[in-house]
Specification:
By secondary structure, the chain is α/β, with parallel strands linked by helices. The protein contains eleven helices and 28 strands. The N terminus is likely disordered. Keywords: FAD, Flavoprotein.
């Protein structure tokens, strides 16, 4: 079992059993907290978030949602996908409707699990049982049916049916489209070799760990948070080099200085990396032997992990006539342009934004499920943020860190590089709009609250940097 520092429990499974007990307690008697990194809500006794692994300093008290809407029907709700958005939608529906039928359909062989743990625990994860969001008994108790190993091939919005690859046709009254996303694999020569893996599910993790255990050298293509998590885990098994095509690591979240600080910390942790790495080929005949760059340099490798972002699974929606832009377009209720069809999670976009992060998927799923059940709930997106723990450091990046060339920013910066600590805050019109913490990230709760309310430069200077 994965040991992730769950105080009072021997392993993740025991914790989840405790969570089921907590869920059955009368409201008002539960003591819950919310992780501000991933949005997970759980027992306050826990010292570590079961989804993203961060510690208690990232938890805030959570008052349970007071759900007053209830409408029992004989409707059939079909949920396509069983990731964070899909399972959150199922929970929201059942909280409001005790008698409806809920059917979840997934291509994967496993019940819903905590996907963020895939790269965080790549070197040690054995089975999905260790990271399940609910035990199988929970689905029976809540009368939720799962069709696993099942692929949807057609969504007929006119006749309100879906068709499966095996020929089955299923009718629905409401449909939640939560098919998530797949890893984007750039058109690099040699990327189809068996030792090249893009990690998106449990089978990818098992394959990467098996190859990493016997590999001498590995290359991770992509210097974003998932690539760095995978690199750190692989470094426990073999020598690792990270290749990033951009001019800095975590290019979407960090500015130049923060990228340099993170790079130095990664070097100290023993992981090699290169930016401005224009890749032309993954070399080797029968097996991978290396990764070649445009300038002629070749990095030896027995294993290559590709982490170059994701692309929403939207083709089924597009073919059915549902409006797709960057992802499936939804309104504040997660409704699509097709009657009775809601979309949420990594495959959906709201007001042109597709953040594709766990916390947003959870909230979108709750919103979709609530409205599908007949309630009236509006999605309220939170400030996009992410955290990273690995390479013997920690990092938090949230909001707009100077990325809009049309805006003028003011900044505050604090660094103590001898201790590996760095802070930077971005302001627009004297309101906090972005922040970066590297090293000591214990201020993350206070910073997140500051981002949500847009606190002033003087307030951050006097109460955050120097509390």
């Amino acid at each position: 079992m994965i040991e992730i520092g769950i105080s009072g429990y021997d392993n993740h499974v025991q914790y989840k059993e405790k969570q089921e007990e907590v869920r059955k307690m009368p409201k008002g008697k539960r003591k819950l907290v919310k992780c501000i990194v991933c949005g997970e809500i759980f027992d306050s006794e826990l010292d570590t978030c079961p989804v993203c692994g961060v510690g208690r300093e990232y938890f805030i008290p959570y008052d349970e949602e007071d759900i007053r809407f209830s409408k029992d029907t004989e409707e059939t709700f079909v949920i396509l996908g069983n990731g964070a958005a899909g399972i959150s939608a199922a929970e929201a529906i059942r909280e409001r409707n005790d008698t409806c039928s809920i059917l979840m359909i997934s291509r994967e062989a496993e019940y819903s699990y905590n996907r963020p743990m895939l790269t965080k625990s790549l070197s040690s994860l054995i089975s999905a049982q260790e990271i399940l969001m609910h035990q199988p008994e929970w689905y029976e108790e809540n009368h939720i049916t799962n069709l696993l190993n099942s692929e949807v091939t057609k969504l007929d919005t006119s006749n309100k049916t879906i068709e499966l690859k095996d020929g089955r046709r299923i009718a629905y009254d409401k449909c939640i489209y939560a098919l998530g996303a797949e890893c984007f694999v750039p058109p690099i020569k040699g990327s189809d070799k068996p030792e090249v893996i893009a990690i998106r599910n449990l089978e990818d993790v098992k394959k990467a760990r098996a190859l990493g255990s016997s590999a001498r050298k590995a290359v991770v293509i992509g210097g974003g948070v998932l690539g760095l998590e995978a690199a750190w885990e692989l470094s426990k098994l073999c020598e690792v080099t990270v290749l990033e095509v951009a001019d800095k690591l975590m290019v979407r979240q960090l500015d130049d200085k923060a990228g340099e600080v993170l790079g130095e910390l990664i070097k100290k942790a023993g992981v090699k990396f290169r930016v401005n790495a224009s890749i032309t080929e993954i070399t080797g005949e029968e097996k991978v032997t290396g990764v070649a760059l445009r300038d002629g340099e070749v990095y030896e490798a027995d294993l290559v992990i590709i982490s170059c972002g994701i692309r929403g699974n939207v083709e089924l929606a597009r073919e059915s006539g549902i409006t797709v832009q960057k992802a499936i377009a939804v309104n504040e209720k997660m409704e699509t342009n097709a009657e009775g069809i809601y979309a949420c999670g990594d495959c959906a976009e709201y007001r042109g934004a597709n953040y594709a992060v766990w916390s947003q998927a959870v909230q979108m799923g709750k919103t979709a499920g609530a409205n599908a059940a007949g309630d009236t709930v509006e999605y309220e997106p939170e400030t996009p943020a992410l955290s990273f723990e690995g390479m013997k450091t920690a990092l938090f990046a949230g909001g707009d860190n100077g990325k809009n060339p049309e805006l003028e920013y003011q900044t505050l910066e604090y660094s103590n590089l001898e201790d590996g600590n760095y802070e930077k805050y971005y302001f627009h019109n004297n309101k906090l709009v972005g922040a970066i913490l590297i090293g000591d990230t214990r201020k993350m709760v206070k910073v997140t609250e500051g981002l949500n309310v847009g606190c002033s430069l003087n307030y951050v200077r006097n109460n955050v940097i120097h509390p």
